[in-house]
Amino acid sequence: MQLTPYESENLIFIDTEFTSLDPSVGEILSIGIVKLSGEELYVELECDAEPSSWVQKHILPTLMGAKVSREQAIRQVRKFLGRKKPFAIAYVDNYDALYAVKLFGEGEKMPFKWMTIDFASILFANGINPGKLFATESEAKVFYRSLGIKLENYQQHHALSDARLLRDVWVKLTKIS
User: Fold this and answer.
1) I need a surface site. Which of 88, 115, 118, 154 has the fewest CB within 10 A?
2) Are 156 and 61 in contact (CB under 8 A)?
3) Which residue has the higher pLDDT, 92 or 49?
């Protein structure tokens, strides 16, 4: 995978956690952003929406930081990203993009390009079945081990940790190919 200097300097890896897979009632709980350089931002948001039972069990226990208002979160992300409008890469980006739009607004209001890049599709295009990758924990460990990544160094279902993992996989795959 060959990128121009502009593209490689203008990538971010994002992950969000939210209260529900139903975006009509769900709200964003946290956002993790990692630049290709390794710089990171993690924000947990105040939220009144009722989380699903799955979110209560798997996501809420990972939220340990101070909560900020939506307005504060927007300011922090904009300050972190600056004016460049980077390309945002997410694993199965549909929910991350949707909840980002709910937070920032659409189009030019987004602090990154509105056209997010789906990393699952990139894996699929390179012969890696993204569905099988997370079918079982052992299959995932085999994949990450093949890249030299220790999965135990990442906290599953934590927005910043998931964004870190995404960046680390990207770095390994782009060095290999």
Assistant:
1) 115
2) no
3) 49
150: which DSSP letter? Answer: -
Q: Answer for the pair 151, 141: CB distance below 8 angstroms, yes or no.
A: yes
pLDDT tens, 102-153? 999 988 899 999 889 999 999 899 888 887 666 667 777 888 888 899 888 9
- Residue-number span of the structural domain to which 121 is assigned: 5-176
Tokens of 6: 């502009």
Tokens of 108: 């030019």
Residue-level length of the chain: 177
- Rounded distance, CA 66 to CA 44, Å? 7
- Could you tell me the sign of the dihedral formed by the alpha carbons of 39, 10, 15, 23, in that order? positive
The model scores a pTM over 0.85: yes
Which of these, 122, 129, 134, lies nearest to 174 by C-alpha position? 122
Yes or no: say if 28 and 47 are a contact pair by the CB < 8 Å rule.
yes
Count of domains for the chain = 1
The HSE-up count of residue 119 (CA atoms within 13 Å, CB side) is: 24
Domain of 135, CATH number, reads 3.30.420.10
C-alpha distances in Å from residue 115, one per residue of 26, 49, 86, 95: 22, 27, 10, 13
